[in-house]
Amino acid sequence: QVQLVESGGGLVQAGGSLRLSCTVSRTIFSGETLNWYRQAPGKQREWVAGISSRGTTNYADSVKGRFTISRDAAKSTMYLQMNSLKPEDTAVYYCRLFPSWGQGTQVTVSS
User: Fold this and answer.
1) Three-state SS across the chain?
2) What pLDDT band is residue 58 in, cutting at 50, 70 and 90?
3) pLDDT for the residue 1
4) Average pLDDT, the chain
5) Which of 6, 7, 56, 95 is deepest in the core (most CB within 10 A)?
6) Residues 33, 106: contact at Cβ < 8 Å?
7) Quick one: which of 2, 3, 6 has its CA closest to 93?
């Protein structure tokens, strides 16, 4: 079972930035996609962004233009650079490599 460990969450004011990291316990295989999800209080978990083994990226409309997903294959680490943060971005952020989930990292954006 692959292990995923997120870090980098915290408290930031609206308009600020944070960078989340997700360290993966093994190499990403061809055809696999690493994803970020988030879950706000009282809401369902939602997909945020994904990056394929080839480096193709996709984003939810709600974060497009503000968030950037990237991956350092040598470090088996995925990142989520979050800029222009809004209070509605407040959530626990999870990384996902099917079928495994990380434990999550809290992001809180104050207004």
Assistant:
1) CCCEEEECCEEEECCCCEEEEEEECCCCCCCCEEEEEEECCCCCCEEEEEEECCCCEEECCCCCCCEEEEEEHHHCEEEEEECCCCHHHCEEEEEEECCEECCCEEEEEEC
2) very high
3) 87
4) 96
5) 95
6) no
7) 6
Question: Phi, psi at residue 103, to the nearest 5°?
Answer: -85, -15
Alpha-carbon span 45 to 8, nearest angstrom: 19
Q: Which pLDDT does position 73 carry in this prediction?
A: 83
64-97: pLDDT as tens digits: 999 999 999 888 999 999 999 999 999 999 999 9
Contact 107, 91 (CB under 8 A): yes
| Site of tokens 């809180």 | 108
